[in-house]
Design goal:
Helix content: 10-25%
Distance between the termini: 71 Å
Radius of gyration: 30 Å
Strand content: 25-35%
Number of helices: 7
Structural class: alpha+beta
Length: 343
C-alpha cells in the first residue's frame, strides 16, 4: 500500500475533511468506532527516518527493522484550546464546578492513536461510594516498583504529590479526557511532556492515603469523574470501543458500568439513522398531537335564539375564536341546526 493511499484511508476513518459529510464515510466511521481495541505497548526499534504524508498533522516513522508507523505530530496541535484552556499543573480539577448536562461523544482511539491497558486483571476497589466517601476511580493491584503505563496518547498536566493521591500523574488527551495515576512510588514525567500510550510514566507504589501497593486509576471529563470500566474491560485489558458516548448519569457518584446492548446501538447510530429516527419521532409526535386535538374538540348544534356571542359566552371562548375554528366571519349568519366547533 502506498503512503498516499494509506493516508487517505486513515483520514477517512478519522472523519477528517469533506468525507465526514459523506453518508458512506459516516457509516464506516461508526462501524469502526464499534470495534474493540486490544491493549498493546509499542516498543519501537531505533528509527531510520521520518516522512511527511501530505497532511502536516500526520507523520510516518520508518524503523530500522523495516516497519513503519503513522503518528500524529503533537507540535501541530500544541496551540489548540484543549492544551491551554483550563490548564494548570497543580489542580485535580481545573474546570471548577462544571455539570455535564448533555451526552458527549468522544473518539478514544483512531487509526493514529494507540492504547495500553493500565493493568489487566481484577480491580480491588470499584468506582462509587466507599465507607461513605466517594471513590472517584478504581484500584488496581500494583506491586511497588512495577512500571505504570500511559493508557492513551496525551500530555502531562500534573506530576506532583497531591494529598491522598500521593505521587500523582494526570494526563490530558486530545479528546478532552483526563486519566489519573495515583499512589506512585516514583514519577517519571514532568508537566508539559508529551507521552504515547504505553510510555512508562511512573512506578507503582503506596504513597498518599493508601492501605497497600496499588494503582488508583481515574477517568474524568471536564473535571467530572466516571467509572473507567465504561471504557476498559479490565479482565481482558481490551478497550470496549474506539468511540464512546458519555451520558450525564455516568457522572453520578454511584454510577457503575453496566453492560447494555441497547446503549451500544445508540452509541454507534449513524447520522443517517439519527435523521431517520428523528423524522419518525417527529411524525409520531405530530400524529399524537393531532389525535389529542381531535379528542379535545367539542361541537355545538345551533338552536333558536343563539348568536355567536351567546355561544362564545356559554363555552368560555370568544367570537374571534369561534370564527377561526369554523372558518366563518363575525358577521356570518348562523342557522338553526348548524354544527359549530366550540373547542
Amino acid at each position: 500500500m502506498t503512503l498516499t493511499k494509506a493516508t487517505a484511508i486513515l483520514l477517512l476513518l478519522c472523519g477528517t475533511g469533506l468525507a465526514a459529510q459523506n453518508r458512506e464515510a459516516d457509516s464506516l466511521r461508526h462501524a469502526y468506532g464499534r470495534q474493540g481495541v486490544a491493549s498493546s505497548r509499542i516498543v519501537g526499534t531505533p528509527y531510520a527516518d521520518t516522512l511527511d504524508t501530505g497532511n502536516p498533522a500526520v507523520k510516518v516513522i520508518l524503523f530500522n527493522d523495516g516497519t513503519y508507523r503513522y503518528i500524529k505530530d503533537p507540535s501541530f496541535t500544541a496551540g489548540d484550546d484543549i492544551w491551554t484552556k483550563n490548564w494548570n499543573t497543580w489542580s485535580c480539577n481545573p474546570y471548577g464546578n462544571v455539570t455535564i448536562k448533555e451526552t458527549v461523544t468522544l473518539w478514544l482511539v483512531d487509526t493514529l492513536d494507540s492504547y495500553c491497558c493500565p493493568r489487566i486483571g481484577y480491580h480491588s476497589s470499584k468506582f462509587g461510594y466507599r465507607h461513605g466517601r466517594r471513590h472517584q476511580g478504581i484500584d488496581l493491584p500494583y506491586p511497588t516498583g512495577t512500571p505504570v503505563y500511559a493508557a492513551f496518547d496525551g500530555k502531562v498536566r500534573v506530576s506532583d504529590v497531591v494529598g491522598g493521591y500521593g505521587n500523582l500523574v494526570i494526563l490530558r488527551h486530545a479528546n478532552g479526557l483526563e486519566t489519573f495515576y495515583g499512589h506512585l512510588s516514583q514519577r517519571n514525567v514532568e508537566p508539559g511532556q508529551w507521552v504515547s500510550a504505553g510510555d512508562v510514566i511512573g512506578l507503582g507504589g503506596s504513597t498518599g492515603r493508601s492501605s497497600g501497593p496499588h494503582l488508583h486509576f481515574e477517568t474524568r471529563y471536564m473535571g467530572n469523574a466516571f467509572d473507567p470500566a465504561w471504557l476498559i474491560d479490565f479482565q481482558t485489558g481490551k478497550l470496549r470501543h474506539r468511540m464512546i458516548k458519555l451520558r450525564p448519569w455516568y457522572f453520578d457518584g454511584g454510577s457503575n458500568y453496566v453492560q447494555a446492548v441497547d446503549d451500544e446501538d445508540e452509541i454507534f447510530r449513524t447520522d443517517e439513522e439519527e435523521r431517520l429516527l428523528a423524522e419518525e419521532r417527529a411524525r409520531k409526535e405530530a400524529e399524537a398531537r393531532a389525535a389529542a386535538e381531535r379528542a379535545a374538540m367539542q361541537y355545538y348544534t345551533v338552536k333558536s335564539g343563539d348568536t355567536l356571542s351567546s355561544i362564545a359566552r356559554k363555552y368560555g371562548t370568544t367570537v374571534q375564536a369561534l370564527c377561526r375554528m369554523n372558518n366563518i366571519k363575525a358577521t356570518s349568519t348562523i342557522q338553526i341546526g348548524q354544527r359549530l366547533r366550540v373547542k
